Amino acid sequence: MNDLKYVGKPSVRIDGKEKISGATKYTEDIEYGPNLHYAAIVESTEAHAKIVNIDTSEAEKVSGVVGIYTGKDFPFKFGLYMKDRFIFAMDTVNYVGQQIAAVVARDEKTAQKAAKLVKVKYEPLPAIFDQMEAFKDDATIIHPNLGNYEHVPWFFPQANTNIAHWRKTRRGDVKKGFDDADFILEDNYSVPRYSHCPLENHAAVGLCDLSDRLTIWASSQSPHTQRNLFAESLAPLGFSHKDIRVIAPPIGGGFGGKAGVSMEILAAALATKVKGKPIKILWSREQEFYNTSQRQGLLAKIKIGAKKDGTFTAIDHRLYWDTGASAEYGANVVNAVGLSAIGPYRFKNISIDSVCLYTNLPPCGAYRGFGYSEFMFGLESHINRIANELNIDPVEIRKKNAIRENDTLAYGVAMNPNGLLECIDKVAEKIKWKEKHKTKDINTKVGKGFSLIWKAPAMPPNASSAAFLKFSEDGSINILVSGMDMGQGYLTVMAQIAAEILKVPLSKIRTENPDTDRNPYEWQTVASHVTWSCGNAVRKAAINARNQIFDVVSRTLYLSKDMLYLEDEKVKCKTKKNFELPLKDFVINGIQAEDSTFKGGPIMGHGLFMPEYTSANSDPETSQGGHPNVHYTVGAAAISLEVDKDTGEIHIEKAVEAIDVGKAINPSLVNGQITGGLLQGLATVLYEDMRFDDKGKMLNPNFTDYKIPTAKDVPDEIVPIIVEVPQPDGPFGARGVGEHTMIPAAPMIANAVDDALGIRIKSMPITKEKIALTYLKKEK
Amino acid sequence: MAILNDFEYKKPKELDVALSLLSSHHEKAKILAGGTDLVVYLKEDILQPKLIIDIKGLSDLNKIEISDDYITIGAGVTFTDIIESKNIKEKLPILYQASESVASIGIRNRATVVGNICSAVPSLDSAPALLVYDSYVLTQNKSSKRSISIHDWFTGPKKTTLKPDELVLGIKIPVIKHTGVYEKLGRYKGEDLAQAGIGIMVYDTNKYRIAHCAVGPIPKRMKKLEDFLNGKEISNEVVTKAKKIITEEIFPISDIRSSAEYRSHMMKVMFERGLKKSIARAKGGKS
Known about the structure:
The complex is a heterodimer.
Chain A: H1 16-20, E1 37-43, E2 49-55, H2 57-60, E3 65-70, E4 77-78, E5 85-86, E6 92-93, E7 99-105, H3 108-117, E8 119-124, H4 131-134, E9 163-171, H5 174-179, E10 183-191, E11 203-208, E12 214-218, H6 223-234, E13 244-247, H7 264-271, E14 279-282, H8 285-290, E15 297-306, E16 312-324, H9 330-340, E17 350-358, H10 372-389, H11 394-401, H12 420-430, E18 444-455, E19 465-471, E20 477-480, H13 490-502, E21 509-511, H14 530-557, E22 564-567, E23 570-573, E24 576-582, E25 591-592, E26 598-599, E27 604-609, E28 633-644, E29 650-660, H15 667-686, E30 718-723, H16 745-757, H17 768-779
Parallel strand pairs in A: 1-14, 12-13, 16-17, 20-21, 29-30
Antiparallel strand pairs in A: 1-7, 2-6, 2-8, 3-7, 4-5, 9-17, 10-15, 11-12, 11-14, 15-16, 18-28, 19-20, 19-27, 22-23, 23-24, 25-26, 28-29
Chain B: E1 8-10, H1 15-25, E2 29-32, H2 38-43, E3 51-54, E4 64-66, E5 70-74, H3 79-84, H4 86-91, H5 93-100, H6 105-108, H7 113-119, H8 126-132, E6 136-140, E7 145-149, H9 150-153, E8 154-156, E9 159-160, E10 167-174, E11 178-185, E12 196-203, E13 207-213, E14 220-221, H10 223-229, H11 236-249, H12 260-283
Helix pairs in contact in B: 5-8, 10-11, 11-12
């Protein structure tokens, strides 16, 4: 692998020029023609209520209004893992901001004006805004029909409760583990809801032509999955998959918020009612906050036992998730954590309960980290406290218990090869863990914090990727795949993989975002899996094309296939030094034989990848017996900060993060992920906080009061470290890295604040206010 | 979001025209200068004016006028204009510092100081400076002019003494030799509305003027604190006693941005640090 020419190089993004020149057309920018119509949404003002009446009479009178549609027009359910949502609210509303009706009009202003005239009469029902309230036996039931919902076989919803899913994992003997412990620490940690805040809000345009061909343009992470969900949901109207086409233009950020289906279903549904006219729906920044999907809130109860020497003996981890009004995606976050909440540690005695609870807050779903950021806040805080109590260095206790290759995971499968210990050592060295630096300012104290990183892709066992690869006359290549580049550099990485196999430079390879009609299947761009999964498909497609090339050269020019190889866009032969045939001479038009006929033809590679060793089936009481995850990516991170004891303000001097990516196909893109992800994580711990009033209405759906960091708030120095212990089934050894980068941010801040001021904050966010007031109380 | 309300837009070149438009429309007209508040209110459909009078065409109002005793800031002067004025940086350092803390560069390029005091939100950054400077707000309607003390200007949250037919022409600030600071509490280093703010002015021999914003319904001078401090050399003992007085003069609320407890605590911290900074500056010989 030392002779790699394109893989492992910090190539410039292949879509860079398109982005910086402004050539990129996002969903909103595309020209949809003079028939374009707009939809405005009538939203619920109640958190939980029966809809008594919807009066559209005044709105209908507004000139320019084409139609007003409500739940009655689309009595269809949808959902990714569980069908628990309607397109519009039917008889009841379950959260403030839920869509009740849509007004379609000739222009945006008319649609919005008319939407304001739709009057909805409600009969309020008791509402629940706290998952622990939802968990109570006598709680109001938010989904009375839960027992009848369709769902994937690995979910366990409990009828007549608010429990959408309960993942139980049991291994070893937990009671004995705690009996054997010299020290047990038990405590609770809480994490609020968060919002993705992509630069580009959700946007979708639907067009159903007069022949019932339905096309949806959407700012999306999941074009094929969206097509599948549209087809399932709209099947009663006569649509099948072949009739539905999802075009996914470049997107301005996803972070999980554009995974699955949320508002896009409205564009698909409304288009079927106003045929021949494209209908555009743009979410405002406010709607982006309260009616897409949010990151779930969490209350985690952690109990860990340890020997005097720091060896962990048992873990009992109970996690209660606030999934909001719909669990169709969020329940899989709960599931993933229920299988992995041991963190990157060797535990022999394990009990995990991960419980997904409906509330009357907006629906939650995927968010970069998929539950791991949330539970690692508690777990990595807890482990630091155990280390302090036992008088063991926090880095040493982590090394002592760190998971190794072939250790048994919570669900009974062997851990993959990994460089966790190497990551820990490199981070400790770079942050100068043992040294305490000094501060000149008498108001500030210094502290350091450490955290490990741990995450597996959460996917259905049969999630797959596919790729087409085709040559043109000049030997340049178009790769057709259906993953989404949303800033992470996926398109560039796919091109690098193909370049390496086919020895064609990146400048001659184009890869673009997909159209489900033309591009082959991809499950979704989520779970940090596309480099690994789609990368395998592209690699196979390139190998497939290479085989076709060798085949035609071999049978036409009588050269042994085994002796052929590619170099500098040419076919060469190991046994015939002076032989070279440029690819451009034959990849479309074939090779002319001695009898002047032509052999071969356009070279088109295809490849697919499905992890054929995974299974989601296991014992519901213990989660033993299946193989739910493909691999874990691990790493370590540390931070060095100064905190003002009076104001609580934190100044981060240095952050170091090391991740074992298996193989960095493009190291500069990996470094970009580490920097960006870390900053996103720091935002969640230091500033961001979704707040709701006592009626369930979000109080800060704006950047005035939902703060994300500016350039001024970036740490002085961020040191990314790449560790490479190859993933056996990854393309060139690569495994996922995108989400992992933000996971250590929250616990390492909590640990550093404790180190600096001797205060332990157990709820996120750790704002300057919380630090100052906690310290003030301690000093009194 | 589209602006749903329909309105007329006028951009007069003469002050007389602007004033007669105001007198014929009263509350139905809204003045547009920077628009950083107005346009948000229009987009959110909070205001539904019939007429928008853009005063950026009134070139006389776009000036900072400097004399020996006064500096007058016209209604069209933006925060960026203030930051870029050498005279203001030298002669009105507290206003300069407050202006630098307003929002972000993009907003400061449009937002005006006069617009700031007309919005009269309790958190307005320019208020503590204008209060410690004993400034005057210059207004005019069709028939007369007024010069209103800044101390009488704010009447409640988002309320001022300005009459519907009056236009603010500018703010007149007396110039005296001093040092001082504006200390602001925000949630991060990026742009933020003040959760608490304090302007501190040190002049003559041991004379002090202090004003707050965001810790009461209107920004205000802290007279009890000033009375206690005036004539005193600053020592740790004096500061400790002074901090106790602060709580008597502020009425912070708890809201999504901050708790009353943290606002109170931070007023004391900012007072102490700000005062020490101001005195260090005075001793450093800088004005």
